[in-house]
Each structure stands twice: as C-alpha cells, then as structure tokens.
C-alpha cells in the first residue's frame, strides 16, 4: 500500500498533480504515508489517521479516492477485524458509490473485510450498503462482481440481515452470478444463496428468483466448494413440502446427482448429499426413487464410516427411506442389518442410536420374513443388552421394536413339530401378554397408555403402531388385555375420529398425522 501511494504521490505529486491538490489534501497524503510507514503502531479507524483517509476519500480527485479505497482495503485485510463506528464506515460507504471501477473494487473489498465482524454486518446494512453492492454485482468488471458478492455473502450470515437482503432485489443478480464463468464469483454467489436458505420466507423468495435449476445444475461443478454450497442449499430448500413437490416435477436428475455426490472426494459434500436425500425422503416418491436409483450402496458405505457426521447423515436418510413398505426388503437385502445393529451401541451420539432402532422398527413393519431376518441378525439380543443403559428416547424405540420382534419369533414356534418348543413358546407368550402386561413399572399396558396419551406425536405413532403389530399377531391373551383396557380403546377411538391434536388445538394435517389416524382405524377394525 505504501508503494501504491508513493507511486501516485511521489515524484508526480511535485510536478503534474501538485497544483491540482488542495492544501488539506497534500497534508493528508503526507500524513498517510507517515502512518503507513508506522502501521504497526497506528490505529487507522480513529483520530488523525482516519481523518487523513477521509480527506482523500471525500476528495473530488479520483486518484486520491483510489488511494483511500486501496488503503482501506489493505488495512482491513491485514488488521484484526474489529467493530467500527459510523465515522469509520462513512468514507468507505461514500467510496462504494463511486463510478470509478478501481474505487468500487477496493471499497467493496474493504467493506467485505469489515463484514466479518457481527456488529459491522448490521451497521453496513443500516447505512444503506445493500443498494450500491447490488449495483456492483451488475458491473461488467469481474473483480467488482467478486468483491460485491463476497460482501453480500458475509452480510447474509447475520439473521437480522437475511430478510432485508431477500427484499432488496439481491437474489436475482446473485442467482445469475452463480453461473459466472469466474470460479471466485461462482463460489461467492452460491455461498450467499446458501446463507439465504435458513428461513421459510427467504427460501420461498429464493425459489421465486429462479434459484432451484441453477443450484441443481451446479451440483455437477468441478469445484467442491460450489458443490457443498449448492448441496446444502438444496437440502435446506427440501425441508419444505411445497418445494419438494416443485423439485419432483422439474428436476428429474436431482436424486441421481446427489447419489453421485455421496462418492465425492470431499467428506462435507458426501455428508450434505446424504442429508439432502434425507430431506427429500420425507416424501414417498423420493423414498422409492432413491432405492431405484441405486442409492443404497453409497448410503451403506457412509453408514460404515468412522466419521460421525457421515454416520448421522446416512442413518437419518436410511431411516426415512425405510418408512416405505416396498423398501423394507431391498434395505435388508443390501446388507444394512448388521451395521444398524452395531449402531445401537453408538454411545457418542443419541440421535444415531434413535435413527438406527427406528429403522429396524420400520423394516419389521409389514413382513414376517423381514422380522425373522432382523431377529436372526441378533437385534433382540443386542437391544436387551443395551436397553437399560441408553437414553430414554432410545429406550422407548427399543422397547417398541423388541415387543414386535419377540412376537414374530414366538408365534410361529407354537406350530413347531416339537412339543417342547411349542410349550416353551406358548409359555413365553403368556409371560409377554400377562405377566409383563402390568409389571414391571406398569408393564406393556402402562407403556401403551403413556404413549397414547402423550402430547408428542411420535410417541402416539409408536404406541398405535405397536398395538397393530400385537393384534395382527393374534395372541388371544394380548387381544383380551388390549380390548379390555378402557384407556387404550378410548384413546384409539379418539385418534381414529378426531386425529392428532395438541392442547385442544385443531387436528394436525400432515403425513405423520394421517398415518396415525389410519393405524388407529386399523386397530379398531382388528378389535372388532
């Protein structure tokens, strides 16, 4: 920076430019050169150093403005970024509106550097920084574009700025620049788009700005940062059911691209690809499409990783995929049972344990063959070994799963050719249905009542699903116990008639609630 100023105001200042400078400008140039030579001891954000920079910034001489902008850019880049006040920000904001490309480039770079600080992010927007930054994004100069978009990216990391950016008109030029041939501009633009996907309102405005096809096309970018930004942005967009329907109708290659990214050389891209598939798999169409598109092998590989985020993202994804009955056998046949059972003991992360046992429960939902395969893989023994030492949320899932699996093992054995096997299995069923019905700790009866009457929709789902499995097992003692429980029958009747309600509010209207109602009605049919 000192060399740059010397170039502008060294030998030439004494001849050509000197008559053009005001007295205060000549003094400011001299002072600034002195301050730059002693930069280690100088605070440029206050006092005389700031006044010298401001004099150059507000000058009518474009060379002085360039020097001030370059000085601000270099100072803010090399010094620790700190909170600054309006007096410091004003000359930079003034320079930002200059028609000169060099001034624009340096001023937006300085502003982007300052926008690393949380308080500065707010101040820049409050002082009207968005409008000139949007104009600079439309500049034909790539350097100006890059710095302006980079500054917007930093500003968009603050929650208070996100809606203001969305409403400022910035999303359309950001979406256009995401296709830039310059990789730096592309990275900054896709990073800014990602930062705008963290709220429902902003996601919708982003979709309206035409971001979805751009983000999907850039999944095939050779740059891993762009891949990461686009994959994560699409994952966030896919949280909304309406957006998933738009993706399903317009982006036919999306699932295939995300499956391909699970083999990326970048761990963070692999992780986000699995999370994006997890969010898409909230819908039945995507649950089936992921399996049909050969998504199971890469998910199994991630599931067996030693890297916790990869394990979590993949087990969350397979849990959603396993909800569809047609996916149960393909998942089992693909070799998921043993890794899932191993994850039941993953003490480092409760969420992984919950997803693993929930997946096993889903896989046992509709096929005796699959239940048998899960039991043969050692799931029941593993759960019994762990159940008293896992968190309560995991315990609830484990007990529901084991109850169903135990029935699937014991009931067929009552038809064994061995009288001894028949007797033992019948005795075990008797224990399960009568001795364990009330004890210990309220037994199966208490567990079912607590879950049915819970305000948690997931607990209601677990309870009514478990009752269906019990009734379909056709054990007379269990049938009698369930049908004679006024609390259970009343709760099932309420769910079948009124759906899932919370604190007296209107019934929930979503896929999970619809499934609970369907299961409750099936229960009543079985009881009749």
TrEMBL record:
Protein family according to the UniProt entry: Belongs to the beta-catenin family.
Protein name: Vacuolar protein 8
Stored Gene3D superfamilies: Leucine-rich Repeat Variant (1.25.10.10)
Recorded topology in the membrane: Lipid-anchor
PROSITE patterns: ARM_REPEAT
Main localization, broad class: membrane
Gene Ontology MF, one: protein-membrane adaptor activity
Pfam families noted in UniProt: Arm
